[in-house]
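Researcher: Please predict.
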Amino acid sequence: MTVRGVPAQLDDILALGLPHSLEVKLEHAAGLLDAGDITSAWNVLGAFQQEGVMQTGHQLDPVLAAVVLPAVQRIGELAGC
């Protein structure tokens, strides 16, 4: 079994074709994590989650949301958020 790091997991999610505003939030959170700013990354991931819930069924397909939202939650937890 290969355990993928947080950056690789975020790249996998970005490759799924999220709405632009969600992609921007995820890319921003990744940059903050790379810089070691865990608190700010957690805030951005929280904003991602909130927007993802609000966009589900609109700009975000419900099937994709069912995969992405829990995955991003787990990534935040792995990153120490």
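Model: Residues 5 and 78 are 9 Å apart (CA to CA).
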